[in-house]
Amino acid sequence: MKVLVLSTMVPFVHGGAEELFDHLVLNLRRQGHDAEGMKLPFTWDPAEGLIEEMLIARQIRVTNIDRLIALKFPAYMVPWHDKVLWVLHQYRQAYDLLDAGQSNIPDTPRGREILAAIRAGDAQAFRESRRIHTNAPITSRRLKQYNGFDSSVLRPPLNDPELFTGGEAEGYILATGRVNAGKRQALLVRALRHAPDVRLVVAGPPDTPADEEALRRLAAEEGVEDRVTLDLRFLPRAELARLVNGALAVAYLPYDEDSLGYCTMEAFQAAKPVITVTDSGGVLDIVRDRDNGRIVPPDPQDLAEAMAGLVADPALSRRYGRAGRGAMEDAGLDWPTTIERLVA
């Protein structure tokens, strides 16, 4: 089957969605399909431009393919008669983030027109699709709540699981993934003030220079520069895996995450416990407090206590980590099964 994988991209921003895109194309080929990937440049600011972004997607014409697999707004609006959606997320600022007061769409007559256009465009894309999968139960719940469409959950498998073998902990807490306000690495830096025996490594690419500057400035202001390593760049997979394998625990604190998160999956594959917070969304589908990690309120002091507790008791950390590895095995996620469902 000739398969085109379609998504969006922001230049020089590389996170979990981009990893999924690359490995989806790779694994389609491994399963014997002719697969190509295409990304549409996308910007969400200013909100006025969102209508133009959608119109551009609707005007794109693809040819010489059998199946179109689309992942993100507004790429899933590209028309094709045999289109399957694997929705990583919609434009959340028109949905749950709007309800949470975290939208860039203004509460004005024009803003309401933009909002209506996004929802109408989504509905059209969903109606014309052969099948709708999502990456997590929370994404499916949003689709049902806001758009009235049913979908099936198809969790992304871990990429390169053979790299995350685990190993002797070197005593640090690790925070991986993109660095921005929504991932809340700043909370971990603030927590260090209340946990003098904890060392933190933040390893991942900042979305913008301002994100990097803010985190470095915060470490200086909190007086914890000697206990935090900021390796703010896109790390090759092998290098990332070495950091995960050597960590005592992995901290992942996204706000209302759509999925389990690759950071979570990589940690559990390496038998490392995960520290997260009560409003981290899909991460909570697999992390269990005091079983395979810690779940605490998004507060620096609570995080400090969680981190310090694992640092002080490495045996407990190892026990939580083994339970996390078991949770990954129970999830039964693999690429051949995933590809089979996407091309069915």
From TrEMBL:
Q: Where do the Glycosyl transferase family domain residues begin and end?
A: 170-325
Q: Which domain of life is it from?
A: Bacteria
InterPro entries documented for this protein? Glyco_trans_1
Q: Which Pfam families match?
A: Glycos_transf_1 (PF00534)
**Which molecular function GO terms apply here?**
glycosyltransferase activity
PANTHER family in the cross-refs: GLYCOSYL TRANSFERASE GROUP 1, GLYCOSYLTRANSFERASE
According to UniProt, the name of this protein is Glycosyltransferase family 4 protein
Q: Which organism is it from?
A: Roseomonas indoligenes
